[in-house]
Amino acid sequence: MESKTDFPCSAHCLISSMASGAVFSLSDSSLLKIIQGDITEWSVDASSDAIVNTANKRMLGGGGVDGAIHRAAGPQLRAACFDVPEVRPGVRCPTGEARITLGFNLHASHVIHTVGPVYDSDVNPRESLTSSYTNCLIVAKENNIKYIAFPAISCGVNGYPKDEAAMIAISIIKEFANDFKEVYFVLSEDDIYNVWVNKANELLQEA
Ligand code: AR6
Question: How many A from CA of 28 to the centre of ligand 1?
Answer without folding.
Answer: 32
